[in-house]
User: Fold these one by one.
Assistant:
Number 1:
Amino acid sequence: MDQSPALAALSALAHETRLEIVRLLVRAGCRGRAAGDIAEAVGASASGLSFHLRHLEQAGLIRARREGRQVIYALDRPRMGALIGYLLSDCCADDAEVRACCLAVRTDPQEDFQLDEASGTAKI
């Protein structure tokens, strides 16, 4: 992934509703979710949802398909993986400590990373 598409994807993710949509679509797997279900889950109006979905589609993070009268949205997993890979390898220079923090399993998903002032390392 090049810098320009990475910036577009990061910009699309930099909004609370769009980030929640991505979280929802990750859990939905390849089957995706219907637009109406997404709107209900994230508490968005039809026009608001359309606005957010368009941003995510333009950034290449989600794909839409039609099933009958419904539009189903799913995460573009290869594209999300490419974004994460870009951040790790290009931006973070494949730093072993950063990679370890990404792979660490957290018991509390709401728990924030903390910096150990003495060692300068991240604690999870």
Number 2:
Amino acid sequence: MKKLITTIAIALLVSGCATNRIHSWGGYDDLLYAGYKSPSQMEVSRTKLEAHVLTLRAAGERVPPGIYAELGTLFLQAGNTPKALSYYQLEHDTWPESRFFMSAMIANLSKNPKEKSGDLK
């Protein structure tokens, strides 16, 4: 009887883990891979990732950890520092684990005039 209960408990645990999704990543890993593999596609990846974030927010779902920061970095690479700062702030506010790093990123971007103008040289 103990074996049967253990087997059922394990089956429920495994099936529960398989069907329970915590976050909707929206193909984040594929988008990122495609962008790094072909840098000319990075803008497409950024646009799709931003659309996914907007969809999640409109549905009242929580954006997965790191996605705001990734979008911020993609906007920074594209020379849009104000938008990068806004996404870094969202990551900071949404995920406590990111606060230390995001605070440093925000502080550095806020005081560095070259990066404010989009000149990342």
Number 3:
Amino acid sequence: MASFKGTTIVAVRKNGKVAIAGDGQVTYGNTVLKGNAHKIRHLFGGKVITGFAGTTADAFTLFELFEVKLKQYNGDLTRSAVELAKQWRTDKQLRQLEAMLLVTDGEKIFLLNGAGDVVDPEQNAMGIGSGGNFALSAALAYLDVDNDLTAKEIAVKSVKIASKLCIYTDDQIIVEEL
């Protein structure tokens, strides 16, 4: 059975700011179902931004669970991410969720997945989803050259590049920055 999928998310950190950008395309099997989806969410009173790639309903479940962890651990992003990853990996039902999250508090960036991984980027960018590696490559290239682009501008440009390469990514980009 086909499922609804969300595709490309990239996080970029530069000059004390972190931006997360995502495309708007949702596919159902090999059909574009929607082109203006919002895959980026503010949590914890706007102090945390998260974006998802993967099955839409699963991602919304994870947003809710992560918000609970943020409240439980008073906004501590690292502790909340680790505790969600542990719960996700060890709970029989949650293990079936097919999504990934990028989360930031404006300083730290983490990738969370159902294998229990909590990964912080080695460099100042991270990408997930079908076009995530394209967007990540573009972001790293922009970060590597001396330019006046902001984290937000780099994130948007990176997803636009991914949209030209990945058929599951469009150029209807939502971006948020902390």
Number 4:
Amino acid sequence: MSQSKEQEVFGKLSRACIVAVTVVDRPEDAVPLAEALMEGGVTAMELTLRTPAALEALRLLRRDAPQMLTGVGTVLTPEQALQVLEHGAEFGVAPGMNPRVVEAALNAGLPFAPGVCTPSDIERALEFDRKLLKLFPAEPSGGLTYLKTVAAPYAHLGVRYIPLGGLSQNNLADYLREPAVGGIGGSWIAPRDAILSGNWAGITAAARNAIRVRDIERSGMQS
């Protein structure tokens, strides 16, 4: 895989910072969902492979909402890594660190962030030169205190994390202040029931609130 391609995609992801993690049950909901998120300022999303509709939803997103940076999560097999790339995924994410999946993704040219939870997971990811990692599940594992502790031995290598699991509007600011955080995975922004009910206004409002916190924290870091 071209290193410049991965740097470009992960650079966009870092600048967006807030990644809406979504479960789509009906393909026709994908584009209205993306539009609702973008109206609120969220320009990156992770579409999880948890429903039969996911791949068709991905295809529609890439065709009709190309300005949304769209990746796919819950990539559990090498075959899925190839499938999501064929359907237009711009990056892939996994809940765990499966060497076969990472190798397949990288060989195919798919920017990929595996999931980690322990130092051993991080070191396995580093064997594949993975420097952007999904920390999952973040809050049940010990939250921000755990993230700071587990990240410390690898900080000099430039490893950064996207925490997911238990994050919300209430603890978003705390995570954004942590230098090891390279982005936030937010499943609260577009909950599955809100997508099913077509509550696009509610999703836009949640997205806008998350972006407001992001911008406040960024301005604080620069001052």
